[in-house]
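Collaborator request, handled under Task 6.
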Amino acid sequence: MERNYNRRELLLDTASLASLSLLPGASIAAALTKTPRQTAGPFYPTRIPLDSDNNLVDVDGRESPAEGQVTHIFGRLLDTLGRPVRNAQIEIWQCDAYGFYHHPRDRGGVADPNFQGFGRTLVDSSGGYRFRTIRPVAYPGRTPHIHVRVVGLGFESFTTQMYVAGEPENDSDFILNSVHDRRARASIIVPLEGAPEIEPDALAGNFDIVLGLSPSI
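C-alpha cells returned to the collaborator:
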C-alpha cells in the first residue's frame, strides 16, 4: 500500500539528509571552493509571507500543493577551512512552475498561490540545512535557478544562486557565466537526482555553501 506523507514528515531532520550526500554528483572536491557571490535580482520579496518555513510546496491554509516536481535541497554552510558556520539563517526564493515570482514587479503573470515562493531556515550545529521546494524552471532570459541568501552573526550577508546541472540554458545564462573561475562556477551547479527514499517522484540535490571567510562562530 502506498504511504501517505504528511507535511511534517517531509521536513526531514538534517541527520537523515546527511546520508544523501552520497547521491551521484555530490561534490566533495569542491567543498572548500569559495561559493561565488551572485546578484539577488529584482524579485526578493517586498513582504515576507506569513508562512515562510523551509517547506515551500505546502502553504498554510491551502488545500493543494504547489505545481511542479517536488525537490529537496540540502547541504552545509561552511567556512573556507571546512568548518561549520553556525548561528546563521538561510533563505531561498524562486519562481513558480510557470516562471512567475510572488513579486509585484514581475512581468504580469499570476504566481501559483499554492507555492510559497520564499522560505528560510536556521542551520543546525553542523551547519546543515534543508528545503523542500520545486524543481526550478527557466523563464525568459534566465536558466533555472534558486536564489540563496545567508545571514548570520559575525559576517556580512551573502547572496548566491543555485543552478541545475544539465540545463541547456546554462551555457548562455549571463549571470551564471559572469563567474569566470571554472571551479567556482561548477560549485553552484547542482545535479538533481531521483530520491524515492524521501518521497515518491521527488528529486534531491546537495548544495554546500562555502563562505569566503574563516569565522570563529
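The cover message to the collaborator said: "The beta strands are 70-78, 88-93, 118-122, 128-134, 145-152, 158-164, 189-190, 193-194, 203-206, 209-210. The chain has one domain: 33-181+193-209. Please let us know whether this matches your experimental observations."
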